[in-house]
Amino acid sequence: MFSKILIANRGEIACRIIRTARTMGVATVAVYSEADSAALHVERADESVCIGPPASAQSYLVAERIVEACRETGADAVHPGYGFLSENAAFAETLDGGGVTFIGPPPKAITAMGDKITSKKIAHKAGVNTIPGHADVIGDAAQAVKIARQVGYPIMLKASAGGGGKGMRIAWDDEQCRDGFERATNEARSSFGDERVFIEKFIENPRHIEIQVLADAHGNALYLGERECSIQRRHQKVIEEAPSPFIDEKMRQTMGEQAVALVRAVGYVSAGTVEFIVDAEHNFYFLEMNTRLQVEHPVTELVTGLDLVELMIRIAAGEPLPFDQSGVERRGWAMESRVYAENPFRGFLPSTGRLVRYLPPTRSDHVRVDTGVHEGGEVSMYYDPMIAKLATWGETRDDAIQHMRKALNEYYIRGVDTNIAFLAAIMAHPRFVEGRLSTNFIDEEYPDGFRGEDVILDDPIVFICVASAIHHRYRQRAAGIDGQMPGYIRDVPADWVVVLNGEQHPVSVHPMPGGQRIVYRDNEHTVISDWQFGQPLFRGTIDGEREVCLQVERQGLEYRLFEGGAHLNVLVLTPRESELYRLMPEKQPADLSRFLLSPMPGLLLKLTAEPGEQVRAGQELAVVEAMKMENVLRAARDGKIAKVLANPGDSLAVDQPIIEFD
After folding, report:
1. Which tens digits make up the pLDDT trace of 92-116?
2. Which residues participate in catalysis according to the annotation?
3. Which domains are present in the chain?
C-alpha cells in the first residue's frame, strides 16, 4: 500500500479523497493555487504545496508542477479526482516514468476513450450499441451541413475531446448547424485545446443512464449498476440517482455486460463509467466512457455500500478486487443534488463571494454532504462554482426524495446566491416524482427559465403559522424589556395580519406551553418549537403531526422565510398597520431597456455592432464567455445603437452595460 498520496485537485473531491485516505492510514498531500491558500482541502491534508497563480491553466493544469510537488513531498501515488488532469494520458505517463503511481486507468485506455471518435469505433467493434452518425472529424461548416443532411436532422455537434457540456450544440436545420459548428469548435479549442468536432444523430427525448464499472490488473471486471443522470441543464448534470426508475433487471444486465465488454476491449483498469443514451423504447446507445471517478459516484456508494475511492487506491496498489459480479449488492435508492453558487432566477448566473454563513444539513444514515467549502471561505471566479454534492438515501425512491427535500430546507448558505430553490422545485415537481424523465426535462418544464412562480408552494399555512409564531415571540420579548421600565407595562396583542405575496391574512395568536396556538380562518393550529432568537433554522411541528424546517432571517420589519424552494418576505402587522400598508405606493424599477447588459460576470469575446448601426430583434450583438461557455447576447427589439460601452477583452460584471440604444 502507498505511504503518501498527492491529490491533484481541489474542492470537494480533494476533501473526499483525503477522507478515505485517512481511514486507510495513508498520508495525503494537497496542492493549491494562490487563490486556494485558505481552502478546506488544504486545511485537511497532512501536507500542502502551492503550485501557482489562481488561473487553473497556470496551476492545476500544469503537470510539471504536480510532478515537482510529488518529488518535494515524497508522494508515491497521485489521485487526480475528476476534471483538470484526471483524463490526461501524458500526465499519467509522466508520473509512471518518475516512479509515481497514477491512481487511475492505463494511459492507453485514457487516450482511446478520451477521444470520442476513437472510442465509438472501439465500442462498435466490441459489440456495444452505438449512435448512428459520422464518426470522423468535420473540417468546416459547409462539410458539417453536408453530413448533417446525410445523417438527418436533428443532429448533435460534439467536441471529440469534450466533456461537461462544453463543445456541444444541437442543430435542427442548416443555419443552426453552421452556427453550432462555430460555437462548438470555439468552445472545444478554449476548453480542451482540441477543436475537432464530429456529428451524430440526436436522439429526441432521451434518458442519460450510465454504468459504473470496476476492473483490476488481475483480469477481474464487473459493473455496479446504473445511475440516472437525465436531469441536465445545458448538457450538465444537475440531479442524479441510483438506480434508474426506467431500468429493469434484464436491461441492467445487458447494459452492464456491454459496459464490461468495452472495459475488456480497451484494457481498462480502475473505476470508470460507461455512459449511454436511452430512448423511450428502451433502446440504448453508447455515448462515451469517462476514465475517472464521476462527480455523481456517491449515489452508487450509497446503494452498494462500497467506497469507490478506496477501491481505486487498492487497485492502483496492485490488489485484486475483493468480490466478483455475484458479490455486488444493491439496496435502497439514492439521490444527489449539485449545489452551485449561481442564481437560478437570473439565468443561473454564477455567483462569487464570501460564504458569510454556511450551515450544511446534519449528516446521518440518510444524508451525505460532500463539500470543499467552509464558513468564511470564498467561492472564486476562477473555478467551477460547485459548493457541494448533497446526497440522500432511502429504502424507496420516494423516501430518498423526501430526505432530499428536508435536507435542502436545512441547507443554510448566505453570502452568495445558490440554486437550492431550483433543486427543491425539481424534487417537488410531479413529473420528477413520477420518474418521467428525459434530458429535455428542464427545457420542457421551464421553457422561459426558472422564475419565482415556478416554485411550488405546498401549503401557505406553514409560512403564516411560522411567521406569526416568530413575530409573537419577538413582541413578547420587547414587552418584557419595556415592562422593566418604571410605570410602563406593555401587553402583546393577539390580533395580527400576515402579509404574504401581497395578500393579507388576519390571524389571532395565543401563547401556550412550548409554542403558540394560532387561529386562522376559524381553524386552530398549534405551533410547537424550541426555536431561539437568532437561530437560522426554525424546526418544529404544526398541529402535532407535520414536521417543518424553515430558514429564518429578520430584515427590518420583514421576516425572510425559506421552505421547499419558496423564499418569501413576510410582514406581520397590526390591523391598523395593515390598513395603512394597503395605501403604500409600490416603487417602480429603473428602466434599463435602453441598455444591453451583461447577464453574468465574464469576458467580452466579441462585439458585432457599431455606434449608429440599426439592429433588428434577435440580431447577435455580443458574445460573452463565462465558465468556458460562449453566451450570445442578442437585440431584444429593433433599434439604433447610440454608444458602445465596453470593448472585446474586457472583464464584465453582472448587469454591466455593454451597449446603449437610442
Report:
1. 999 999 999 999 999 999 999 988 8
2. 288
3. 4-103 (3.40.50.20), 105-131+206-331 (3.30.470.20), 132-201 (3.30.1490.20), 332-456 (3.30.470.20), 460-581 (3.30.700.30), 595-661 (2.40.50.100)
